[in-house]
Structure formats: structure tokens, C-alpha cells
Amino acid sequence: MATLAAFRLSLSSSFLPCPPPSVTKTTATHPHRKLLISASSSSSSSSILKSPKKKHWKIGEYPGVTETSIPQYSSNNKKKTPIKNIKKKLDKKNNGNAWANTVTEALSEAIDKKQWHRALQVFEMLKVQPFYQPKEGTYMKLLVLLGRCGQPGQACQLFDEMLQEGLEPTSELYTALLAACCRSNLIGKAFAVLEQMKSIPHCQPDVYTYSILIKACVDACRFELVESLYDQMAERLITPNTVTQNIVLSGYGKAGKYEEMEKILARMLESTTSAPDVWTMNTILSLFGNEGQIEMMERWYEKFRNFGIEPEIRTFNILIGAYGKKKMYDKMSSVMEYMRRLSFPWTTSTYNNVIEAFSDAGDAKHMEYAFDQMRAEGMRADTKTFCCLIRGYANAGLFHKVISSVQLAGRLEIPENTSFFNAVIYACARAEDLMEMERVFKRMKDKQCQPDSTTYSIMMDAYRKEGMSDRVYDLEQEKQLMKAKILKGFDGAETEAASDVDGKMSLV
């Protein structure tokens, strides 16, 4: 109980903001595994990049301030404005310019760090300034950000505000809005956006628009809608490209429709506009690798090589991840050594696959060794890295190292997304610390991070073990309410229109 109490108190404080650390690189060796031996002989040196110099407005560059805009006085005018007053006004305007430039940089920083709430706040600050005129590119970045962060309601609201301000929409902006809906599985709303695009002459959908919508239908296993979208593309003389075919190919494979998958592959081999490429290869290998069908994965690897398709870094990472999940460490090491011989660098994804393999097995010793070598080679850890570390330490029962990993992630300013909080909640559940689990869950919602099915599944399993059926019921209700709130992000008319379009498309 003392250990659990320490775990609870330390983990709560670990979420507080921490000052950036002085990161030291360490090199570790291990005599019992040949997994990462070759790294010591060919370690890469990290280059120090100089941060770009911040540009501020110079005197006279302020929009609207010209020499003619400064009051001129003749020698006969008795009431002259003191020179010092003019200087104060110019200084005030110049300081405003520097402030605006700083806020613009803050907006870019928030977008880069995927902090959608802060980005919208900074954007609102900029829009009230008379000298700032938002452009299409800014709206595009914000729409993409909101889509990636699972905020379709905010994306629709931003799009409407853009139209009210008189900015002409484009097919690219509409496609970004459609993609935001698709990322949250709002297929009906996405079809409604598609109909709006088709009604505007200069905002017609292209192959990229249809590919995004096809992917959403594939992910939802709505293959009847995929066929109808293919028919629409044919009517509009839009030819599916390799990306489109790869999306459908992946969907058929995940759904176990192997016959349809082979038909798509055969069609691609005969086509001149959608010939298979390395992404096709990666899609097939990833499909069989995730299902643990190693023999089929290796067989298709040889087939694609015979087609003349050369592997890339992601191809090798897929193989490493598949071997790692099956605990085939020898083959995993062979692929990594083969990458070294071909001068393919090990990337963050490469190390993440290795760390994940040991994390799932609860092998904290080799997981730490891979992480130490990753940092020694100058690779930057990301959110997935720390998710694997946290889950790995939890699987090994080393809950004090879970706390240190969360603290290190804070010092390195690792983005805290849904997967990150899920990993911490999983660790709390493994430690049987339900009080801390609830605190992490509350902080997750305070950080505007949307819980998903995995979040609720972990917590409900933890409550069931303790016989807390009332808490399980509460979470079930909250889960249903969360889905209702997402749909409520649109007004009633939009929701009804989206449902009508979805119903019509399902009958095609």
C-alpha cells in the first residue's frame, strides 16, 4: 500500500509543468542480445541547427504608416505638435508591429505542436487587429489541425466564420473541411460537404477529395458507398490514382475480403495510371504483419520484389514491427542489420517498433537499452515512444519508472494526446490505483483531449475487477453522451441534411 500511495502522489505531481532539462546522451551495451550491436559501429552524429532569427518590423514598415500619413505643418502654423509626441506615436506603432509578429509566431508554434485550443485563441487575438488580414493558407492550416485533433465541430464553425468574413472558398479548403469530418467518422456530414462542393463551379471535388471520402467509407466498412463514389468519379471523368486504389486495397484486406483485394491488385497491374508502388507493397505487408501471418507477409515481399518494386525505410520498419509482435527477435535483428548494410538509417519509427516489441513482453531491460541507444544516436523520441515505455514499465510492474517516464515526457515537451493518456491510465489500472486513474482521466478531459473506446475499456475493466458496477454504468452513460456531443457540434439542419445524403448514398 505504501508503494501504491507513493505511485499516486508522484504521478499526480508529474503532470505539472517542468522546466526543460539538460539532456545528456548515454551509450549502453548489452552482451546477451545481438539486436542492436551494429549501431555502435555506425552511430550517427546529431547536428546542431541554429534557430531562425525572428523578424520584427523595422521603422517605417508598419502597414499604413507612410511619410505622407504623418501630419505636416508649415512655418506659419502657430500650434505645432511637439516632435516628442510624434516619436511616441511611432514608437507605439512599432512596438505593436513587433507584438503582432510575435503573436503570429505563437500561432505557428501552436499549430506545429498540435495545440488546437491555444491556436484558436491566438488566431482570435490576431483577427481583431486592424492591420491583420487572415489568408487562405492560415485557414487551411487550422482546418487540418482541427481535423487531426478530432474537432470537426470547431472546423465547421471556423469554416462558417471564414465565409462570413468574405473569404472565397476553394476546393482545397472544402477538402480540408471534408477531411476533418472523415477523421471523426462523420460520413453523413462529409457527403453533405461533397454536395456543397459540387454546387459551386470553382470548388469542384478532385481525385484527392474522393480519395479522402473513400478512405472514410472503407474504414467504416461501407463498401457499398465506395462503389457509388467510384461511379461518381467515372461520371466526372476522374481517374482513380494509385493512392485511391491503395486505400481500397487496404480496406478490403482489413475486412478479410481477400478476393476483392486480389481483383484490385490485378487491376493495378494492368493499369497505366494506378500501377502498384512501394505504398502498395507496404499496405499488403502491413496487413499480413498486423494479423501475424508472417509467411504470407514474406511471400508477398518476394512477389513485390519480383515486380521490380524496391523497399524503403517504412517497408523495413513494417517487417521489424511484425517480427517484434511475434517475438521473432532474430529476424528482427537481421532486418535491422540489413538496413545498415544498405545504408538505410534507423529512424524513430524503427526504434519505436523495437521498444514496442519489448514493451508488450514486459522486458524492461532490453526496452531501456533500445531507448538509451535511440537517444545516443540523436533520435528524437515522440509520443508513441513514451506510450510504449509507460506500458512496458507497467507490464513489468515497475511503477516508479512509469512516473519517471511521465516526468521525462513533460520535460521533453512530448505532446499529450489520447494515446499518451491511455497509456498512463493503463499503468494506473495495472497498479490497481483507481484514485490516480480517475485523476489522470480528469486531467485528460481538462486538456481538451478526447477519450476514445480504449480509454473507457481500460477504466471499465479496472472497475469490474473491483466489483464497482456503478462506476462501470456511469462510464457507459458518459461514453454515449460523448458520442451525442460530437454529433451535436452541428446544428439540427446540418445533421438532418447529412443523414439524408448518407441515406441516399446507401441506396445507390
UniProtKB/TrEMBL annotation:
PPR repeat windows: 135-169, 206-240, 241-275, 277-311, 312-346, 347-381, 417-451
* Database matches in Pfam families: PPR, PPR_2
Q: Which PROSITE patterns match?
A: PPR (PS51375)
Q: Which domain of life is it from?
A: Eukaryota
The GO molecular function terms of this record are:
mRNA binding
Entry keyword annotation includes Repeat: yes
| InterPro entries in UniProt | PPR5-like, PPR_rpt, TPR-like_helical_dom_sf
Q: Which UniProt keywords apply?
A: Repeat
| Similarity annotation | Belongs to the PPR family. P subfamily.
Which PANTHER family does the UniProt record give?
A: BNAA05G30910D PROTEIN, EXPRESSED PROTEIN
Q: What is the name of this protein?
A: Pentacotripeptide-repeat region of PRORP domain-containing protein
Taxonomic source organism: Handroanthus impetiginosus
> What are the leading ranks of the lineage?
Eukaryota, Viridiplantae, Streptophyta, Embryophyta, Tracheophyta
